Amino acid sequence: MRYIRYAFLGALAIVLMVVALANRATVTLNTLPDRIAEIPGMGPFALSIELPLFLVIFAGIAAGLMIGFVWEYLREHKHRADAARKGGEVRKLERELRRVKGQRDQGKDEVLALLDDVR
Does the record bear Coiled coil in its keywords (predicted)? Predict the structure, then answer.
């Protein structure tokens, strides 16, 4: 299984390098369209930067992955909270069970109490 993972990662690295080499041309990345940037007061928000296209592609993929991870983390919060609540309830019930067994076995011989625990 480990070799399959290494083979997949190697193939992915090769594909990413080919995409990067095929998309080396620079592109201009603007934060606002030209018409909106011309509106008075929008000048500080109108930024532009020239980057290789493969960096824009990879940054878009990385941003999409991070947004997906955060979305799933927030979506599964109720499940994690429910599991933590149930775990706390289990620990509370186990403590209560030990206390009840201790009260039940208070007057018994230790060997007989151990035999009761085995059943």
Answer: yes
Is residue 5 domain-shared with residue 54, that is, in the same domain? yes
Same domain flag for 64 and 30: yes
Place of tokens 């186990």: 94
Residue 34's domain spans which residues? Answer: 1-75
Long-range contacts of 11-16 (CB under 8 A, 24+ apart): 16/58
Contact by Cβ (8 Å): 97, 116: no
Region class of 109: left (phi > 0), else alpha (psi between -120 and 50), else beta: beta
Query: Tens place of pLDDT for every residue, the chain, 119 residues?
Result: 899 999 999 999 999 999 999 999 999 998 888 888 888 888 788 888 999 999 999 999 999 999 999 999 999 999 999 999 999 999 999 999 888 877 876 776 666 666 666 66
Range 114-119, long-range pairs (CB < 8 A, 24+ positions): none
Spatial neighbors of 105 by CB under 8 A, at least 6 apart, are 112, 113, 116
Whether 58 and 115 share a structural domain: no
Same domain for 46 and 31, yes or no, is: yes
